[in-house]
Structure formats: C-alpha cells, structure tokens
Design brief:
82% of the residues lie in helices and 3% in strands. It is mainly alpha-helical. It has a single domain, classed as Four Helix Bundle (Hemerythrin (Met), subunit A) (Up-down Bundle), CATH 1.20.120. Helix 2 packs parallel to helix 4 and helix 4 runs antiparallel to helix 5.
Length: 237
C-alpha cells in the first residue's frame, strides 16, 4: 500500500485524478439545462463539452510528462485507461439522459467496458502483458469525436441526418473490433492463470496426501527400533 501511495504522487497521476474529478462536473453541466448556452436556434450543453475537452487534453499532457521525465508508474498504467473509460461512459450516459444519444449506444459500450474491467481485475498484474493495438487507438479517437459531435445533436438530427450517431456507431464497431483483439490475448493469459491455480491445488493435494503416508512410515520405523531394543535387552539378560 505504501508503495502504491508513493507511485500516486506524480504529476501524470495527479492529472489522471483531475480527469476523474471532472467527470461529475461534465455530467452536471450536460444534464442541467440551466447551464446551457444558446447557439442560434439551439440550446446546447457547451459548458459540459468544454470541461470534457479540457479534461481529455490533460491525458495528452500526462502521457508526455510520463515519457519525457520517466514518471510512468504501474499505478498510472492502471488508472489512466480507467479514467478514460469513466469519462467516455459518464459523458455518453449524460447525453442519453437528455435525449442527445440513443440508449442502445450506452448499453453496448457498458457491456464491452464492464467485461474489460472484470477481465482486468481477474488478470490483475498479468493484464500488463496484453499489447495495445492500432485499432484500439483509432476506435478511441473515433469515439471521442462522436461524443463531441453528439453535444450538437439537435443540429445533426435536423440538418445532416444524424451524422453524430453514425460516427458514434462506427466508433463502437471499431471499439468492439479492438476488444476482440484484446480478448484473444486475454484468453491465453486467463488459461495460463487457471493452469497455475490448478497446478497449485494439485500440489497442495499431493502434499496433504503424502503426510499421513510419512507418518505411517515413521510409526513403523519407531516400532522396528523398539523391537531391536527389546531384543538387545533380552540378550543382555
């Protein structure tokens, strides 16, 4: 625990914490219509969008600092993607609540993200062996673009045939393609973990079974020693 706390107090990790803190403010300014700004004929949650963009920009900064000044930590590697997932899911959920995004999008995203989080928890330290792929980066960028576009949903819905939802759908498809790529690697790691646990259980069973056998052998040896001692005593008489 102390080691994790030491890892936490770095600039990249503080910026990751900043993104997490921004999440409730993004949700509030997206859901509460009193914070909306009027743009022409449309009333839009632009303050929520601005907070989200600022928070997302910090992700680029903390990555640069971690690489440039060698401040990358194992804790940061775990927290950074979780902060990104939290921001994406919370923002889309807020847009669903106000009717800017269809509920099917958030269900699809939560199903995928929930599976990844549970898998990461099960694999724990072994999840670091999963290699990032180019498709994942493209999917994340497309999803981010779609979320930004969805803040202007009334415009797209009336002028450009729901273009924001089309881009969001493409982003989700790419996300699932990247997910299945990760899943192939995860399955191999999970099989290895299960094999290790099975071997450990088998080893424990063998040890437990061998102990009574050794005890019986020791008793036989003790009995034999007692007989030898008795024979020697009779001969002395």
């Amino acid at each position: 625990m102390k080691e994790l706390l030491k890892q936490f107090w770095t600039i990249p990790n503080m910026l990751t914490l900043f993104r997490v803190i921004c999440v409730p403010f993004v949700m509030w300014c997206t859901i509460d219509q009193d914070t909306y700004l009027q743009v022409g004929e449309y009333s839009l949650p632009l303050i929520g969008l601005i907070i989200m963009v600022v928070a997302a920009s910090s992700d680029l900064v903390d990555g640069f600092i971690a690489r440039r000044f060698n401040q990358g930590t194992q804790l940061g590697e775990m927290l950074d993607p979780l902060a990104d997932k939290l921001m994406h899911c919370a923002t889309i959920l807020s847009l669903v609540i106000i009717g800017f995004v269809h509920w099917a999008f958030i269900v699809a995203l939560l199903l995928k993200e929930g599976t990844m989080v549970l898998g990461g928890i099960y694999m724990a330290g072994d999840s670091k062996n999963i290699k990032a792929n180019y498709m994942g980066k493209v999917a994340s960028a497309t999803l981010s673009l779609a979320i930004i576009m969805s803040f202007f949903h009334p415009f797209w819905a009336t002028k450009v045939f729901y273009l924001d939802w089309i881009v969001l759908g493409i982003g989700l498809v790419l996300t699932y393609m990247a997910f299945f790529n990760y899943l192939k690697q995860a399955v191999a790691i999970i099989k290895g973990i299960m094999a290790k646990k099975a071997a450990a259980r088998a080893g424990g069973s063998v040890s437990a079974e061998s102990e009574p056998a050794n005890t019986g052998t020791d008793e036989k040896e003790d009995a034999a020693c007692d007989k030898d001692a008795s024979s020697e005593a009779e001969q002395d008489k």
